[in-house]
């Protein structure tokens, strides 16, 4: 089934070239089915790229999915045009009276700050509290995952001595969890962050499940036992070349950083990287949409 996006969204032609099933709004309203309504809080600087990455993964489902985009009202992004935000985005105030079947909160380049020092942290707190009554299940990515662990479960982060960047092996440890159905016993996943959530606190928290583990990167998938929150500490939505672009960006800033681990063929930065986590990403998003959202959300929120 298709994903319903605005006709002029920049992600649309990219997805259509990939043969992703896209449907226009005027056709979607004629479908005699109950679509899933998702809300995406996009905190990433390159919003158009993040839109494409996430919509691609949300499209691989037998369910019709409608997506609303919101950005922070208390912080204005410098890497996206004002016209793009005005055309495709709303703020939390515009949607706070609605209910959503699922929500995604992305990462953000604010790891170096304590949570309370982030300009839009009070707004984040308001949104995360709102999800408890207005969203069936929320998916949090990277910094968004750390923010959720901190706010909902009191688990803080710690700064790493060196940034973790690369592709790392993970071992599935919760084989019967619905979110992990069909995922290999061992799998590769990309990480890119300067901080870690406190490992021991996650493992010992009575309301959380670590679904996998990695000796180098720690857990990738963490879920609340009530299935209301899923935390992804890495970036399974990334394209094959995203880590390389981040590596080049950091070098241009004068940051002394090693090349991403286990990323380039033969560890040669001159060779293009391959996407070795695509199937994992599609399956995880499909499982979340099916088991944590569709199977649990009320047909009529009223």
Report on the structure:
By secondary structure, the chain is α/β, with parallel strands linked by helices. The chain has one domain (3-294): Rossmann fold (3-Layer(aba) Sandwich), CATH 3.40.50.880. The chain is built from ten helices and 13 strands. It has helices spanning 11-17, 25-28, 47-58, 82-88, 92-95, 121-134, 143-153, 199-204, 242-252, 278-294; strands spanning 3-4, 22-23, 36-41, 65-70, 89-90, 100-105, 135-141, 157-172, 186-197, 208-210, 212-213, 221-224, 229-232. The strands form two sheets. Strands 1, 2, 3, 4, 5, 6, 7, 10, 12 and 13 form a ten-stranded mixed β-sheet that branches. A three-stranded antiparallel β-sheet has the order 9-8-11. The two termini are 26 Å apart.
**How many domain modules?**
1
How much helix, percentage-wise, in residues? 25-40%
The CATH class turns out to be: Alpha Beta
Mean pLDDT: 91
Beta-strand fraction estimate: 15-25%
By DSSP, the count of extended strands is: 13
> Order of SSEs, N→C?
EHEHEHEHEHEHEHEEHEEEEHH
Q: What's the shape?
A: globular
Radius of gyration: 18 Å
CATH evolutionary superfamily:
Class I glutamine amidotransferase (GATase) domain
The CATH architecture name reads 3-Layer(aba) Sandwich
Query: Low-confidence parts lasting 5 or more residues at pLDDT below 50?
Result: none
Structural class: alpha/beta
Number of helices: 10
Largest sheet: 10 strands, mixed
CATH topology: Rossmann fold
The N- to C-terminal Cα distance equals 26 Å
Offer a quick outline of the entry.
By secondary structure, the protein is α/β, with parallel strands linked by helices. The protein contains 10 helices and 13 strands. The model has no long low-confidence stretch (mean pLDDT 91).
